[in-house]
Amino acid sequence: MKKLLSGALCFLLLICLTAAVCAQDRYQEVFDTGGDAGLLTVRFLDMITETGDKSGDAAILTSPDGMVMLLDAGDPGAADQVVAALRAMGVTRIDYLVASHPHVDHVGGFPAVMEAFDIGQVMTSYVEYPTTYYDAYMAEIEAQGLTHIYLSEGDAFSFGGEVTVEVLWPGSDIAYYDGYPEASTQFVNNLSLVLKFTYGESTMLFCGDLYSAAERELVTLYGDRLDCDVLKADHHGSATSNCKTFRDAVSPQITVMIADTLEDLNIFKKYQRIGDVYITHFNGDVKVSTSGDGTYQTLTVKDWDPGL
Fold it and tell me: What does the pLDDT look like over 24-71, one tens digit per residue?
């Protein structure tokens, strides 16, 4: 009996070791930039924090001509994983450092990133958020003398020579209420930057942590202009967001949820009815790339069959 148990344990250990090796190989493949030339590529990062805090959002975009953008950098406890991903790509310079909104799980990792890499320019909305970690982020920008560009609705800029980024939300005139920033979670989330990337016939949409109220306003403002092939699900795929009006308007072929868990099963299933859905917690890091022809290649660190 002991020999049988010993053999079974050895077999299980072998399976675990094999899975770990395969995952490491896939990680290297996801972050290998050897085939990125000519493609608009986004790598959605799978992060964890030892403190149990929400790890947040971080996505690395590379333009067809090699420019690098980091859109959010997760919680401070996940900053080392963001730095590791960038280094795995061989990045030494980040051309655009972009914050969707100033919550800790989106900007908390920026100071560590700014210390580790050469930064071209920083881009934020006009939203201010007087907190310790936000102040540290702003102080690092000032200490390094970085160019700080404020984005607002109606702006547009080029990401390299072939990708256009439109800023759809929010405006520059932020009306703060008395007592701000107390009880401001929804207020700040609803002021997340909305960025639409267009490369040829391919489109991607990033909306930070927008709640449903702001999503509906976007649909009213833009209608069919919100239609995009790739969507980073709002607020980590939570039911606070991703309302039917918004889902119908965007109608994504591919939805990626940067999340520490499955935030809401119903939201997941509703996106599944539209196209392919990935969750970083289950799929690991997710790479999506396009040559600008409206078709996409995806690669994940982990295989996951939701069976839901």
Answer: 789 999 999 999 999 999 999 999 997 778 999 999 999 999 999 999
Confidence (pLDDT) at 12? 45
The pairing of beta strand 202-206 with beta strand 230-232? parallel
Q: Which residues contact 29 (CB under 8 A, 6 or more apart)?
A: 299
C-alpha distance from residue 211 to each of 9, 186, 239 (Å): 48, 7, 9
pLDDT value for 6: 59
Which CATH number goes with the domain that contains 123?
3.60.15.10
Residue 136 lies in a domain: yes
Residue 31 CA to residue 87 CA, distance in Å, equals: 9
Q: What tens digit of pLDDT does each residue of 189-204 get?
A: 999 999 999 999 999 9
Q: Output the six-digit token pair for 167.
A: 């800023």
| Dist CA 121 CA 12 (whole Å) | 49
* 74: containing domain: 36-296
The owner of tokens 């953008």 is: 69
pTM score above 0.90: yes
Given the DSSP bridges, would you call strands 147-150 and 156-159 parallel, antiparallel or unpaired? unpaired
The answer to whether position 129 is within a domain reads yes
Q: How many domains does the chain have?
A: 1
